[in-house]
Amino acid sequence: MAVNNQVETDWLVELKxxxxxxxxxxxxxxxxxxxxxxxxxMGKHPIRTYVDxxxxxxxxxxxxxxxxDQFHGSTGGEWVRWLRTIAxxxxxxxxxxxxxxxxxxxxxxxxxxxxxxxxxxDPASSIWKSPYRNELKSLLKKAIEELPSRDRHLLKLTASPxxxxxxxxxxxxxADAARMRYHREILxxxxxxxxxxKDGS
Length: 201
Prior knowledge:
Layout: H1 5-16, H2 21-42, H3 53-67, H4 76-97, H5 102-113, H6 117-121, H7 133-145, H8 149-158, H9 164-171, H10 175-197
Helix pairs in contact: 1-2, 1-4, 2-3, 2-10, 3-4, 5-10, 7-10, 8-9, 9-10
């Protein structure tokens, strides 16, 4: 069953009216979407040989059952975004326990993600002109907020007219170390997160 925001909005009304079976319909309604996103997240990484996206989605459902009281939205769109956020965190927690980082996933999944490094760096990129641009900006802001403070500081410095040498001085590292952190860790991590959470992916 595909994601259908209007149908899910109706089910949310039923859930809030005390019909607990509506929660099962809400989860099943998003199951294939979450499995596809989790599969795309892992791409062609070797971890696919022993971690099944369907197993991760089952972990997501168990997590949702524990946190359902924390959902305060009323529309299908709000439900889907909340569910995908939980799914991303559960998936990454599982993959990180296996020693896999977001930046590593990017190297295996770049072609399939639909979000490239140039998209994030370039405000004129087509993704920022898409019907989902406001959502993407909101997701990107949230993703940046969840970065370690040192990485948030690095991003702020790169938005200023400083050279990489000056950025490195501010961070107490070399220009090459700052540049590599930016290109090989921070931007890939943001791209992977955006690709998983955004609509239309």
